[in-house]
Amino acid sequence: MTSFEYVRPESLDELLSLLRVHGPHARLLAGGTDLLVRLRKAPPFGFGEASDTPPVVIDLKRVAELRADVVDVDGRIRIGARAVMTDIIDDKRIRALFPALVEAAMVVGSVQIRNRATLTGNLCNASPAADTAPALLGYGAHLNLISAAGSRQMPLDDFFTGPGRTLLAPGEIVESIDIPEPRECTGGAFARLTRRHGVDLAIVSVCCVIRESGDVRFAFGAVGPRPLTVVCRHDVSLDEVVKNATPISDLRAAAEYRAAMLRVLARRALNTAQARLHRAQHSA
Q1: Domain boundary assignment for the chain
Q2: Who contacts 163 (Cβ-Cβ below 8 Å, separation ≥6)?
Q3: Which of 44, 80, 93, 279 has the fewest CB atoms within 10 Å, i.e. the most exposed one?
C-alpha cells in the first residue's frame, strides 16, 4: 500500500472545505468495505494500478451533521449517510414498509461487512451489481446532496451514469436517502442469483414493487452498465419488461445465462410481491 494523507473532519463545514481543496482526487471513508479493498490492492503490496491510491482519504465518521439514524420526515423515511446495513435490517419501519430493501441489505457481504458497510456508500460506489440499488430504485428513492454551493435533491434513477460513475458534482456528497412512504397497499420483493452463498457479487438481481393501483416498478442489477428501472402495469409481459437489459459475459456468468435468469428472477419477484400485496390488502 502506498502512502496517502488521512484526515478526520469534525464538522460538515470542515469536510466541505477539504473537498474544495482536494477536489475529485479525495476518497471518502464511511464503512470502508470497498475503499480499503482497493487500497490494499494498490502497489507495492497489491497488483492494482498506482492510480488506485488517492492522495487523501477523508474519514466521515466524526462529522456530526452526517447522521447514522433512520427518521420520519414529512411522509418519507430518511436514512442518514452513515447508516449501515445492519441499521436498515433492524429498523421496524423499514421492515414493515420496504421489505425488499431489507432482503437486499441482508445479502450484502457477511455479518461483519453489514455492520460496517453504509447504504450510501453502496450507492456511491456505483457498481452495476450493487445489491441495494434495485430495491431503492423499486421504491422510488431520492438522494439529498450537499456541497459548499448548497443542497439539492435527485431521484436515484438519475444518479448512476455507468460503472463507478455518478452525477455527483465535484465537492458534493450524499447527505441522506429519502424513500417515500407508500400511500396505498404495496407489495415488494427482492431476488438475486450468485455463484455461491456468502460475499459473492450478484449474477443478476431483481426488485419488484407492485401497488394496489396496478402500477409495477421493476429494477434490475448486473444486467447493464448501471441499474435498470422499468415502470409498467401489472399485466405487461415479462419479455417487454426485460427487453432493455444488456447483460455482458464475464467471470461470473455468460450474457445468455444472465438474460435467461433475469426472466426467471423477475417472475419470482413479481409473484412474491403480488402475494405480499394481497396480504397487505387483507390486513388493512
Answers
A1: 5-59, 70-180, 186-283
A2: 126, 127, 128, 225, 226
A3: 44
Q: Could you report the per-residue pLDDT of 228-246, keeping only the tens digit for each?
A: 999 999 888 999 999 999 9
Residues 6+ apart with CB under 8 A from 90: none
Q: State which fold the 70-180 domain adopts.
A: 3.30.465
186-283 topology per CATH: Enolase-like; domain 1 (3.30.390)
Judge contact between 261 and 219, C-beta under 8 A.
Answer: no
Rounded Cα gap, residues 217 and 84, in angstroms: 25
pLDDT digits (tens, 9 = 90+) for 181-238: 999 999 999 999 998 765 678 999 999 999 999 999 999 999 999 999 999 998 889 9
Name the maximum alpha-carbon separation found in the chain: 61
Rounded Cα distance, 164 and 128, in Å:
8
262-281 pLDDT per residue, tens: 999 999 999 999 999 999 99
